[in-house]
Structure to design on (122 residues):
C-alpha cells in the first residue's frame, strides 16, 4: 500500500491532509450528483440580517423575510471553495447530495477516485 501524503493541493493551495480528512470521510458517506449551482430561497432575519436556507419551515413574517433566490452561494464541504451562479464552471458547477455541495476538484480528487476504486475501476 502506498504512503498517503501529508499534504494535498486544492485550487492551487497546499492543505494539511489532516485538516480535510474528517470532511472527506463525511462526504464519502453520501451520493453526489453533478449540477449547475443555482440560487435558492432564503430566510433573512430583520434583526441582525442572519440568512438561513429555506426548506419550507415555518417562520414569523413579522421578523423574517422570505427572499426568493436569496441563498447566493454555497461552500465546498471539504475546502470551503465558493460555489455560486456563474459562467465559470469552477464556481458554477459542483456536486450536491441535495443539502451540501462539493467543488469539482474535491469531488474528483477525493470522492470519484474512491467510487472508481470501489467499483473495480469502472
Amino acid at each position: 500500500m502506498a504512503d498517503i501524503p501529508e499534504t494535498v493541493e486544492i485550487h492551487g493551495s497546499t492543505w494539511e491532509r489532516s485538516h480535510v480528512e474528517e470532511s472527506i470521510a463525511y462526504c464519502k458517506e453520501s451520493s453526489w450528483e453533478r449540477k449547475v449551482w443555482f440560487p435558492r430561497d432564503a430566510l433573512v432575519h430583520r434583526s441582525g440580517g442572519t440568512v438561513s436556507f429555506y426548506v419550507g419551515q415555518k417562520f414569523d413574517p413579522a421578523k423574517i423575510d422570505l427572499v426568493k433566490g436569496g441563498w447566493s452561494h454555497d461552500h465546498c464541504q471539504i475546502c470551503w471553495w465558493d460555489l455560486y451562479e456563474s459562467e465559470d464552471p469552477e464556481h458554477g458547477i459542483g456536486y450536491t447530495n441535495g443539502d451540501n455541495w462539493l467543488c469539482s476538484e474535491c469531488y474528483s480528487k477525493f470522492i470519484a477516485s474512491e467510487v472508481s476504486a470501489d467499483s473495480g475501476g469502472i
